[in-house]
Amino acid sequence: MLHIAALMLVAVVSTPPGSEEPIPYDAAYVQAQEQKKPLVVLVGADWCAACKSMKADTIHSMKNEGAFKEVVFTQVDKDAQPEIAQQVMQGNTLPQIVVFCESEQGWKRFSLTGMQSERRVKELLRKAAEVLPKRR
Length: 136
What we know:
This protein is of the alpha+beta class.
């Protein structure tokens, strides 16, 4: 038992910042619908330098400051999950950050393509929040 606890501690301590695994796309999709929150998807690939940079810098920093608290965030690896990536993406440029939200007129899609700054991602989240139905 002590051995297992020690291994878990090593795993937690040795996990670099920003490498926490996001919830899988399918679970994030369900959670977004149940909680009536926008679904934010970062589509990337392991070989993509801009994707790695965006995850490590932009996304990690935004998570730490709570910028994703009103959305459900997930990531999709274009190579590991090509079917989901194809449904989410427009075009082939990586990375892509896509926001799906339900408005009073139906589902809306907002996206940014390529490496993005925190400012641009926050603008995208604000734009998506503007179409959400007002909660009573």
